[in-house]
Amino acid sequence: MTLTVADLRRDVTDDGDVGKGDRLRSDRPKRRSFTPEYKLAMVEAYDAATEPGAKGALLRREGLYHSHIIEWRKARDAGALNALAAKPSGPKTRKSEAEKENERLRARAEKAERELAKAKAALEIMGKAHALLELLSESANSDAPPRK
């Protein structure tokens, strides 16, 4: 079975018949994504078009821009078939609940360590202030004339 450009395009755009009532955001356009096979087929079809106006007609028929072809051709020439695949949007990896809990506990422990360091510094300053006051008190007692 030979795939045609129309078959590849149908695979890209067919996302099932969803009624407007079923969509949460029916007023927002859906971002298109293209398979690597479709991208390669489009680049090959664009490069094969030799008649005047054939390249523009291909782009209009497929709803593509010239920049798509340029980008896909660069990726193809770099040998990055996987780079032709649409880049996934959203979070790169999903964290498990245990990882989320570990991060939360790690942040809590770091905050507690910072507060402990502040408390230790405050106690050290208080200790030095106490020692200074004792030293001043002793020198004041020894300088004072004896009472009769």
Automatic annotation (TrEMBL):
Residue ranges annotated as coiled coil are: none
Write down the SUPFAM superfamilies for this protein, in alphabetical order. Homeodomain-like (SSF46689)
Q: InterPro entries, per this entry?
A: Homeodomain-like_sf
Print the organism lineage.
Answer: Bacteria, Bacillati, Actinomycetota, Actinomycetes, Streptosporangiales
What residue spans carry the region label Disordered?
Answer: 1-33, 84-112
Q: Which domain of life is it from?
A: Bacteria
Extract the signal peptide range. none
Q: What name appears for this protein in its UniProt entry? A: Transposase
Positions with biased composition (Basic and acidic residues)? 7-27, 94-112
Question: Which organism is this entry from?
Answer: Nonomuraea antimicrobica
